[in-house]
Amino acid sequence: MRYGICPLSIVPMRFEPSDRSELVNQVLYGEHFKVLEVRKKWSRIRLAHDNYEGWIDNKQYQELNDEEFAFAKAQKTTLTSDPVQFVTSGIGELTTIVLGSAVSLSKLMDHTFEGNSTGIKRDKSLLVATALLYVKSPYLWGGRTPFGIDCSGFTQMVYRLNGHKLLRDASQQASQGEPLSFIEESQAGDLAFFDNADGDIIHVGIIMDDNYIIHAHGEVRVDRLDHSGIYNVHQRKHTHKLRVIKKII
After folding, report:
1. Which of 21, 64, 97, 230 could form a disulfide with 101 if both were Cys (CB 3.0 to 4.6 A apart)?
2. At 216, is the pLDDT very low, low, confident or very high (cuts 50, 70, 90)?
3. pTM here?
4. Secondary structure in 3-state letters for 45-91
5. β-strand partners of 206
6. Where are the domains of the chain?
7. Which residues participate in catalysis according to the annotation?
8. Which superfamily does CATH assign the domain made up of 2-118 to?
9. Which of 228, 87, 225, 102 shows the shortest CA–CA distance to 163?
10. What is the SS3 assignment for 154?
11. Domain 124-247 architecture
């Protein structure tokens, strides 16, 4: 088995081994993974933190040996807590990194990090404050950063920054946690899931106090939430149909 780590700020993960293929995810600085298949220019990987699979460019990751990967698995994850920071290489080169980058393994890449970070499991009440750090981030299918993020990437990163694990896609996240019968039973930090006409889960957001929700739709934004779904006051209509509310924490 081969292993790797991401030494760059943001690496695109593709559905197929091609630059023209759909962006399905992003690998952030310091995230490590198993390499499942290697081709001339591309490798199919499985991320360690959520087991998500996809293809990345061979030029955009650093290989780890068995001992280094074992070390990576044993380390407590520490993530950057500011929107933009940087690491410094042994020869003084700077690499810009974004909110939620994993800096606990910087030494494996001969990097030094001296910024603000978080590595503890934090109370559910702090989830919304973290979510607000992403407000106005543009929607990007497959994105996980303040410079472009999708709905489930947003919820995953908010939970991850607070020390809690979520799977990558909205449909996967909907399989986690305890379902609630009514909005009135929910608390700030719970997740609301929304479906399409075929009954497929296609959207997720984080519930706030007073019947509001923060979610990635065009941008990370705050809208009203009622028993029918998400109501956009600017468009004066419901944009998403509520399927289920889940208590994850």
Report:
1. 97
2. very high
3. 0.96
4. EEECCCCCEEEEEHHHCEEECHHHHHHHHHCCCCEECCCEEEEEECC
5. 191, 214
6. 2-118, 124-247
7. 151, 203, 215
8. SH3 Domains (2.30.30.40)
9. 102
10. helix
11. Alpha-Beta Complex (3.90)
